[in-house]
């Protein structure tokens, strides 16, 4: 009888452990589902903020951009989707040159903020995608922009205003830059491989530690 009692006690303890384990797994699943729901709500709200147009909604758009940046950190698996959204935002809202070769205003604050998020992200979390490759930005107003270390490989920047823009150590290989205004642009360490400079004649001069370019 004592042996039977011992077995019953042992099976009861094992059963309790199994039940506890199942309960913990169920709790973890519930927490994960709730967390994903929160991520979805945050994503939806941020995208709605990006959709607010006009100068009076600038702060709202900035809030949406930074909310998406935070979400990409909290949920790394969602980073490729978030970066795609920001690339679309940049391409669809960036100001374009009206009176070449320059824009009336420097890089818009919300455009700069979105570009900064792209630059600062951990590219290893892009899941093998390159959402910012080949961005179509012809005639883009990016003067005085902060694009150091930017990834603009294959970008279409024909006719873009890059006056006094910091492009130091940026990746611009195979980018289209015909008629772009690069006067005063910092191109120190910029990757321009694959660019067919024979299509345009550029005169380069170095002054005060910066690289200037002027079409001739």
Tell me what you see in this structure.
- Helix content is 43%, strand content 6%.
- Strands 1-2 form a two-stranded antiparallel sheet.
- The protein has helices at 2-50, 58-74, 79-93, 109-120; strands spanning 202-207, 210-215.
- Helix 1 (2-50) packs antiparallel against helix 2 (58-74), helix 2 runs parallel beside helix 4 (109-120) and helix 3 (79-93) runs antiparallel to helix 4 (109-120).
- Mean pLDDT is 83; it is low at 198-216.
- The longest helix is centred in the first third of the chain and has 49 residues, at 2-50.
- It starts with a helix and ends with a strand.
- It is mainly alpha-helical and 216 residues long.
- It is elongated and about 90 Å long.
- It is built from four helices and two strands.
Task: Please summarize what this structure is.
The chain is mainly α and 216 residues long. The chain has helices at 2-50, 58-74, 79-93, 109-120, and strands at residues 202-207, 210-215. Helix 1 runs antiparallel to helix 2 (58-74), helix 2 (58-74) runs parallel beside helix 4 (109-120) and helix 3 (79-93) runs antiparallel to helix 4 (109-120).
């Amino acid at each position: 009888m004592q042996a039977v009692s011992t077995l019953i006690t042992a099976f009861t303890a094992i059963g309790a452990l199994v039940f506890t384990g199942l309960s913990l797994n169920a709790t973890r699943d519930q927490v994960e589902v709730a967390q994903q729901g929160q991520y979805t709500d945050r994503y939806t709200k941020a995208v709605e903020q990006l959709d607010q147009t006009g100068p009076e909604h600038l702060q709202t758009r900035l809030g949406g951009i930074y909310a998406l940046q935070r979400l990409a950190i909290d949920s790394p698996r969602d980073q490729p989707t978030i970066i795609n959204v920001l690339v679309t935002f940049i391409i669809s809202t960036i100001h374009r040159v009206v009176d070449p070769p320059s824009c009336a205003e420097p890089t818009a604050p919300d455009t700069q903020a979105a570009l900064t998020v792209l630059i600062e992200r951990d590219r290893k979390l892009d899941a093998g995608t390159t959402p910012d490759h080949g961005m179509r930005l012809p005639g883009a107003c990016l003067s005085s922009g902060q694009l150091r270390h930017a990834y603009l490989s294959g970008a279409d920047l024909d006719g873009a205003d890059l006056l006094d823009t910091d492009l130091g150590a940026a990746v611009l290989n195979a980018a289209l830059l015909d008629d772009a205004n690069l006067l005063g642009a910092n191109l120190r360490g910029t990757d321009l491989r694959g660019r067919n400079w024979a299509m345009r004649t550029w005169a380069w001069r170095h002054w005060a530690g910066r690289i200037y370019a002027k079409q001739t």
